[in-house]
Write a structure and sequence with these properties.
The protein is α/β, with parallel strands linked by helices. It is built from eleven helices and eleven strands. Strands 3, 4, 5, 6, 7, 8, 9, 10 and 11 form a nine-stranded mixed sheet that branches. Strands 1-2 form a two-stranded antiparallel ribbon. Helix 8 links the parallel strand 7 and strand 8. Helix 1 packs across helix 4. The longest helix is centred in the N-terminal third of the chain and has 30 residues. It is elongated. The relative contact order is 0.13.
């Protein structure tokens, strides 16, 4: 029996076993109601009703227990259904979320305001640091939830981590840069090029450094910053500079006087929402973590 059938069974009892009256109340035919009862009894090998000449006289001992259990199941089901619509109103308090500035602008610009506006009883403290620093903030429990880049470089058995977006790193140069007409760049072509990249608090900084070391090239890193728009604008107005940032930038902003060039064997850019594993999470931690995943269609 599903919930609907439990309600039918309870209705039969509460209508003093009058199937005709019960069927009218439930807007089904009396034969359908009788078939439902008989099918259930036959499949389960039990008798819920005492009958005489196919007329229900009352409940068997099993039926009485089933009736009490059915009432409890329906009560809990209705309570569960109600809770679905009042959870948002119940959750209140403070939560700290760490999001890198670039990801906040490019990935969370629509979703974060939505979550804040939908939850006026929650105070959101947003910490804007690079993913590399946020990794430390999460380990030290200075943030409840951190948006990191894969690989998170935290032991897998100590965090829950879910991918919410994926792209790749891409080279951006001024239209007057000598490589601006390239359709795709190899890493060897970056050797001795002047780069403007995120500073050491950002995981992208370390991913680029590791890729350069792996490909045995030595670009000139002449500018480091925590501000993605500063990197982009510096590159736009300085034909000697090149920056390497996620390709996602192309989808979110109209960039004038600047060219995006894909990289051969690009560095993946996988955005992860992470939290430390705990035996018990507070209601607000559980709720907001699930809400973020829901907004990104992960749940």
């Amino acid at each position: 029996m599903d919930i609907k059938h439990l309600r039918f069974f309870i209705a039969i009892v509460e209508n003093n076993f009058n199937l005709s009256r019960t069927a009218k109340q439930l807007y089904i035919s009396q034969p359908s109601l009788s078939i439902m009862i008989n099918d259930f009894e036959e499949k389960q090998g039990i008798k819920l009703f005492n009958k005489k000449y196919n007329k229900i006289l009352g409940l068997t001992m099993t039926g009485k227990q089933f009736y009490e259990d059915s009432l409890e199941v329906i009560r809990k089901y209705d309570e569960m259904h109600q809770n679905l619509f009042v959870t948002d109103q119940k959750v209140e308090g403070n939560i700290t979320i760490g999001i890198p500035p670039f990801i906040l602008s490019v990935v969370f610009s629509k979703i974060m305001p939505e979550i804040i506006l939908e939850n006026p009883n929650i105070h959101f403290n947003i910490k804007e640091f690079g993913a590399n620093r946020l990794r430390q903030e999460l380990i030290l429990e200075n943030v409840d939830i951190a948006v990191l880049l894969h690989p998170e470089r935290i032991a897998a058995n100590t965090i829950d981590s879910f991918k919410i977006q994926e792209s790749e790193l891409c080279a951006f140069v001024s239209r007057d840069h000598h490589l601006a007409n390239k359709k795709i760049l190899t890493w060897s072509e970056l050797h001795n090029e002047k780069l403007a990249i995120f500073d050491k608090t950002f995981m992208i900084h370390h991913l680029i450094k590791e890729k350069c070391q792996y490909t045995n090239i030595n670009p000139q890193i002449v500018l480091e910053s925590a501000s993605w728009d500063f990197l982009v604008n510096s590159t736009r107005i300085n034909p000697q500079l090149m920056t390497i940032i996620p390709k996602q930038m192309m989808n979110n902003y109209v960039l004038q006087d600047i060219v995006a060039i894909p990289m051969e064997n690009p560095i993946p850019w996988k955005v992860m929402v992470s939290r430390l594993k705990k035996n018990n999470y507070s209601a607000i931690e559980e709720y907001i973590f699930d809400k973020i995943l829901e907004k990104f269609h992960v749940l």
